[in-house]
């Protein structure tokens, strides 16, 4: 039975508490185990011919990238659940802590999208049909997540408890 989580309800809860952590943890396993670092590396930029075997430095960098994906997924999963469980009757504080996390994630989303797009060869940047699933994940799906974080901040489809509320006497405004 789902627990009440006023600051992260409905669609936002399904997306940010379940789907996003799974979608960010999955690439770690793809890079570490199967299909492995070489496959992951070759998928970063869609090309006809995969590159040669990876040197030890590149393999290590791909494994470390996988670890970053794992870290993001675990932080979202564990921290958001801790917020829900530790503050069940305080949606304002829930929202303030989620907002801090979402701000960091939104900034990371924006830079991830920009760097992934700039890193593409010029002939692929606007050739969306030539993108593979990795490119769409790094750009298209991350843009979707960023849009949903911005919608959450705007209060679209949810009740607001802190962001967008007038400051009460003696409190700073958001």
UniProtKB/TrEMBL annotation:
Chain segments annotated as transmembrane: 12-34, 61-83, 95-118, 138-156
InterPro entries: DUF7704 (IPR056121)
Pfam families tied to this protein: DUF7704
Assigned keywords, A-Z: Membrane, Transmembrane, Transmembrane helix
Residue intervals of the DUF7704 domain: 7-157
UniProt name for this protein: DUF7704 domain-containing protein
Source organism: Boletus edulis BED1
């Amino acid at each position: 039975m789902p627990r009440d989580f006023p600051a992260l309800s409905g669609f936002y809860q399904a997306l940010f508490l379940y789907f996003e952590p799974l979608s960010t943890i999955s690439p770690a396993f793809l890079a570490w185990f199967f299909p492995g670092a070489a496959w992951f590396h070759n998928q970063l930029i869609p090309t006809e011919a995969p590159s040669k075997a990876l040197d030890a430095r590149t393999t290590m960098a791909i494994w470390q990238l996988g670890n970053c994906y794992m870290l993001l997924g675990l932080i979202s999963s564990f921290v958001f659940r801790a917020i829900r469980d530790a503050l069940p009757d305080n949606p304002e504080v829930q929202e303030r802590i989620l907002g801090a996390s979402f701000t960091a994630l939104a900034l990371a989303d924006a830079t991830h999208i920009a760097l992934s797009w700039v890193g593409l060869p010029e002939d692929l940047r606007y050739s969306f049909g030539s993108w593979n699933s990795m490119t769409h994940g790094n750009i298209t799906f991350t843009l979707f997540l960023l849009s949903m974080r911005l919608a959450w901040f705007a209060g679209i489809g949810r009740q607001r408890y802190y962001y967008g509320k007038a400051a009460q006497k003696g409190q700073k405004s958001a």
